[in-house]
Write a structure and sequence with these properties.
single chain, Rossmann fold, Dimethylsulfoxide Reductase, domain 2, six-stranded mixed sheet, 29 helices, 26 strands
């Protein structure tokens, strides 16, 4: 064939359709390669192996993520028959009027992160609970046998009756949380959840009132603003000229569905970023932030130093203070409290002869006076500026003082109620209609209520327990001051055994319990210590609607994508069936009014009725949505277009709407706190100052006597690759990281530690074994171990998996803050192994309970 002949052939081929061209080219190439031999071509395949379903072979279903990573995003399940073979996410087409690629400021895509995208591995994991199981070994040994639902539920109901009769209405502890069952119908939380409703109606419930993530922050928001709805929607960040990420790493735990989208817009418009944190985080790198390293648990002191600089240089907004703030200075104190401490005089040292100067603050927090002054001036002079005071520094002893101090800075600079400013403590923004089942007088009945992580202390020391030691909430139906006699625990949507402070203390308390029930979709450390494991269907296997998480203005439909695997049931089915067993039809119908006894086998019609009524009677009526329920199901998502950016307290500032506090103002001086006369009869137990103050914590780098024994301050932030302990068993994610301790390079050099060395981190409460990671991105004197690793104890009680809560202290902090980050510890090289093969090979631990017993 001549060159001219080949050119003619190619020219003709260009006139063919694509398929014919490919076939002809293949024939020509084969013929040339074989010296003229003709070979019949094979059609090219997209995958190297078969069979592999292609998109046009699959059914596409819109659903969502399910966990508290900082938002809840859209997942799109691609299934073949009853098997999900792939997960994708929002591409703009699913909302009304949407098309592929639509991604606007008003209706941005709600794109899932890698945690959500990996969910198929959790759904089909070897740790998946498929049948009821009952313990046959010692607690924590992980020996279970399969049981029928009748056997498991008969056992649970019988033990409930026995414990209630023997020990009274406080015998059963509700430890539900929003880990895996959070929707408008299948809900597990402390206030509105299905378990609380069930135990309250049953007449035997001690509840857990405190939220580990942000209890100190929640207290601050309610005391200061009268509400936890003190947050802006994330699009407000796009209007900020300065964003201070105080203890906030949005690359790991964003607060809202599209945090990065709007912060990137702010950056593009010239917004400056500052990070105040013991670590230089990925977020600091992404936004080119000015990093200010700070000693852990000293944030309130640094903020007091900033306030001093702002006051003494007349940089505060006195007009805003006079209009909207109580107790910022002597002139804004209420008449009945004249002469009591006000915030400005405390900062200037009038009461204690200690002005809270930047130099005073520097000696405590380790930040130079010059940097404290520079940040104070930058914040006070930049309008609008967002001081995003995140939750992590509030997870400390006296953590509420950090958040209250932040609120004082936000108020004194007038950055509240303005677009681009920020008043966030809790940060809850747009209000969703959150409950589809009956939320009536039975929804939150409790006989006593204690601080969540003080249950072990209560069990171990009963009856010799003071109410202030356990955060006993006043007003329990068992009677004021009654110490609960806890003999059983229900865990729903909660791996709290793995996640609360001072795990070794919990292990001791477990030995005194007579009933431990765990509802979950996979085995967890909490499940390993249970008597009964009840398999719960995942959000792919039940009908519900997903709520945004504190921020985001949308609803995502969650259909039943696949049938429940094995014999798994929803929590609603389980508690409805238990209600029928414990109280017959009266209790069963009171708990689940729309259901008959056959709900345990056939829940679909009842669930659909609850969800339709929720949409039609709440969403369409209260939120003026004109999309029908059927249309919502068809599209899969409803994205609200707000008439203006949602800015907390904008109407208070612009229209004079009172704040929901007793004074109708922002209460930097709290009238409520100032008027308590017996702190032991409050849930807090110990005195909390009426104004924000620096209060020295029980463990920190400034406690010289304690630092001599344990010289490092350990913090345990949230990881990017887990949501607390959820996803810890996902091999895909574990390939991207190792559970490790981060240590500053100078500290590591002194101790002879190099990256990859196995070390022990320890104190008087426990020991953990982890690899070391040496870096300059962590300040000297600080260690970092991410929370959430599944505990794995050896024969000596040493945790080989690296769970930092073996080292944390469960002491009660006033206002309820969990002191996860108030920990002194030591570190040394060790010959012990860190969970051999676990991080490197993502080894399944299903062998722990899948035995032939």
């Amino acid at each position: 064939m001549t060159i001219l002949d080949w050119k003619d052939k190619l020219k003709a081929a260009l006139l063919m359709d694509r398929r014919t061209f490919l076939k002809t080219s293949a024939l020509g190439s084969a013929a040339i390669a074989a010296g003229g031999l003709t070979v019949k071509p094979k059609e090219a395949q997209a995958f190297a192996y078969a069979p592999y379903p292609r998109d046009d072979d699959l059914t596409t279903v819109v659903t969502s993520c399910a966990h508290n990573c900082g938002s809840r995003h859209m997942l799109v399940a691609h299934k073949k028959g009853d098997v999900i073979v792939r997960l994708s996410t929002d591409d703009g087409r699913y909302q009304k009027g949407g098309e592929v690629g639509k991604d606007t400021f008003e209706e941005p895509q709600i794109r899932a992160c890698l945690r959500g995208r990996s969910y198929r591995a959790r759904l089909y994991s070897q740790e998946r609970l498929l049948y009821p199981m009952m313990r046959v070994g010692q607690r924590g040994e992980g020996k279970f046998k399969r049981a029928s639902w009748d056997t498991a539920l008969d056992f649970v109901a019988g033990k409930m009756e026995e414990l209630k009769a023997k020990y009274g209405p406080t015998a059963l502890l509700d430890q539900s949380y929003a880990g895996a069952s959070y929707g408008v119908l299948h809900k597990s939380d402390q206030i509105e959840g299905l378990l609380g409703r069930f135990l309250g109606m049953y007449g035997c419930r001690t509840s857990s009132w405190s939220v580990p993530s942000y209890e100190g922050t929640k207290f601050s928001s309610r005391i200061t603003f009268g509400t936890i709805e003190d947050g802006n929607e994330d699009d407000a960040f796009a209007h900020s000229k300065l964003i201070i990420m105080w203890g906030w790493n949005p690359a790991y735990t964003f607060h809202g569905g599209n945090t990065f989208y709007y912060m990137r817009m702010a950056k593009q418009k010239g917004c400056k970023f500052v990070l105040v944190d013991p670590q230089y985080t990925d977020s600091a790198a992404a936004y080119d932030a000015w990093w200010i390293p700070i000693r852990p648990n000293t944030d309130a002191a640094m903020m007091a130093g900033m306030a001093h600089y702002i006051f003494t240089n007349n940089l505060h907004n006195q007009e805003f203070i006079n209009k909207f703030v109580q107790g910022m200075d002597e002139g804004t104190m209420p008449d009945w409290a004249k002469g009591k401490e006000n915030f400005k005089d405390y900062i200037l040292g009038k009461y204690d002869n200690t002005p809270k100067t930047p130099e005073w603050a520097s000696a405590i927090c380790g930040v130079s006076p010059e940097d404290i002054k520079k940040l104070a001036a930058l914040y006070a002079n930049t309008k609008p500026a967002a001081l995003k005071a995140s939750w992590a520094p509030g997870r400390n002893a006296y953590g509420e003082q950090y958040n209250r101090m932040a609120a004082a800075l936000q108020a004194m600079t007038g950055n509240i109620g303005v677009l681009g400013g920020c008043s966030e403590g809790i940060g809850k923004a747009w209000h969703a209609e959150g409950v589809a089942y009956p939320y009536d007088e039975f929804a939150n009945v409790f006989y006593e209520s204690i601080k969540s992580d003080r249950w072990a202390h209560c069990v171990l020391n009963y009856p010799n327990v003071k109410r202030e030691e356990i955060g006993l909430w006043p007003g329990g139906q068992a009677g004021d001051g009654v110490i609960p006699n806890i003999r059983g625990i229900f865990w729903q949507g909660s791996d709290w055994f793995n996640q609360l402070t001072n795990i070794n203390k919990e292990i001791e308390a477990m030995k005194k319990l007579e009933l431990v029930v765990c509802n979950d979709s996979t085995i967890t450390p909490s499940g390993l210590y249970a008597d009964v494991l009840l398999p719960v269907s995942t959000h792919f296997e039940r009908h519900d609607v997903a709520l945004p998480w504190y921020k985001g203005h949308y609803y995502i439909h969650r259909p039943k994508v696949i049938e429940p695997m094995g014999e798994s049931k929803t929590d609603f089915q389980i508690y409805t069936e238990l209600a029928w067993r414990l109280g017959g039809e009266p209790f069963g119908r009171r708990y689940n009014p729309k259901a008959n006894r056959d709900y345990f086998q056939n829940p679909d019609e009842v669930d659909e009725t609850y969800l339709r009524e929720w949409w039609e009677h709440k969403v369409m009526v209260h939120q003026h949505v004109d999309m029908s329920w059927e249309e919502f199901k068809q599209h899969g998502v409803y994205k609200f277009i707000l008439p203006r950016p949602h800015v907390a307290f904008q109407d208070n500032v612009e229209k004079g709407t009172p704040w929901p506090t007793a004074s109708g103002k922002i209460e930097i001086f709290s009238g409520q706190l100032a008027q308590y006369d017996d702190w032991t009869k409050t849930a807090y137990g110990y005195e909390i100052p009426a104004i924000p103050k620096w209060v020295e914590p029980w463990e920190y780098l400034g406690a010289k006597d304690k630092v001599e024994r344990h010289p490092f301050h350990l913090i345990s932030p949230h990881p990017r690759w887990r949501t607390h302990s959820i996803f810890n068993n996902i091999g895909w994610l574990r390939e991207t990281y190792s559970q490790e301790v981060t240590i500053n390079a100078s500290d590591a050099k002194k101790l002879g530690i190099k990256t990859g060395d196995t070390v022990e981190v320890f104190n008087d409460r426990g020991r953990v074994v982890v690899p070391a990671y040496v870096t300059e991105r962590c300040m000297p004197g600080v260690l970092v171990i991410h929370e959430g690793a599944w505990l794995d104890l050896d024969e000596n009680g040493i945790d080989r998996a690296g769970n930092p809560d073996f080292l944390t202290l469960d002491n009660p902090s006033p206002a309820g803050a969990f002191a996860y980050n108030t920990v002194l510890a030591s570190i040394k090289k060790t010959d012990l192994s860190h969970k051999p093969g676990w991080d490197q090979l993502a080894t399944s631990r299903s062998h722990v309970f899948r035995r032939d017993l």
